[in-house]
Amino acid sequence: MVFFGKTDVGLKRANNEDSFLVKPELGLCLVADGMGGAAAGELASRIFVETAVEVFSTPLSRSEDNGANLVQKAFRWANERILDHVRMEPRHKGMGCTAELMVFCNDGFVLGHVGDSRTYLLRNAQLKQLTHDHSVVQEQIDRGVISPDEAKNHPLRGVILRAVGVEETIGVDLIRGKRLSGDLFLLCSDGLTDMVDDPLIQEALCLKGAVHEKVDKLIELAKSAGGHDNITVVLSAVM
């Protein structure tokens, strides 16, 4: 497998609250999008990264079940640590992060998802979103209250229903699947998906070129569309 990740502050924000991690030797990658403003958001996403590194640092069985247990453990520990930090630093109340955490086990993968960052799979030149946004707008789409087109400019766009470090208990979507030769997995913050529609993301991922070139292309597209938020992109290619 080949991994590559990159984060960009974008064109409107003064600081970058996103964090990412690629650990090829562990078959691990993640994206975390901090919230809470300035230092608090940056700290929340960094806590998630540091916690994941700690949880996966001990070489263990590469079974899918063990991978799933470790993914859930990373989310649980990060949730507790962010809450503990807020108790000690009440001025950071409201901090937290969305997160995508993927680990590759044998011939499959396990993905943990909380919030409105996303994970996609490009297989046979077709893009599929693996995650479901935990957001007010997505909930209204699901209920048929608004259409996907109406969601693009909805005033509640960006209001999330689930995040790491906000509630005492955390609900993690756990997604499993097989990996095939030629697969390309995309983990990203909403700084990409709010700016670039899925068909354009698919087109960029289908271009010839190295993985790092595709990451650069996606960030370039988001900035060309306005770059209103921090943009983080991680690609994992199955060779």
Description:
34% of the residues lie in helices and 28% in strands. It is of the alpha+beta class and 239 residues long. It has one domain (2-237): 4-Layer Sandwich (Phosphatase 2c, domain 1). The strands form two sheets. Strands 1-10-9-6-7 form a five-stranded antiparallel beta sheet. A hairpin with a 2-residue loop joins strand 4 (96-105) and strand 5 (108-114). Helix 1 (38-56) runs antiparallel to helix 2. The mean pLDDT is 95.
Helix content: 25-40%
Along the chain, the helix and strand elements come as EEEHHEEEEHHEEHHHE
Structural class, please?
Answer: alpha+beta
Radius of gyration: 17 Å
Shape: globular
Number of strands: 10
Q: Ranges with pLDDT <50 over ≥5 residues?
A: none
Q: What would you give as the CATH superfamily? A: PPM-type phosphatase domain
Strand order in space, largest sheet? 1-10-9-6-7
| Individual helix count | 7
Distance between the termini: 6 Å
β-sheet strand percentage: 25-35%
The total number of structural domains is 1
Major beta sheet summary: 5 strands, antiparallel
CATH topology: Phosphatase 2c, domain 1
Query: What is the CATH-assigned architecture?
Result: 4-Layer Sandwich
Q: On the 0-100 scale, what is the average pLDDT?
A: 95
User: Which CATH class?
Assistant: Alpha Beta
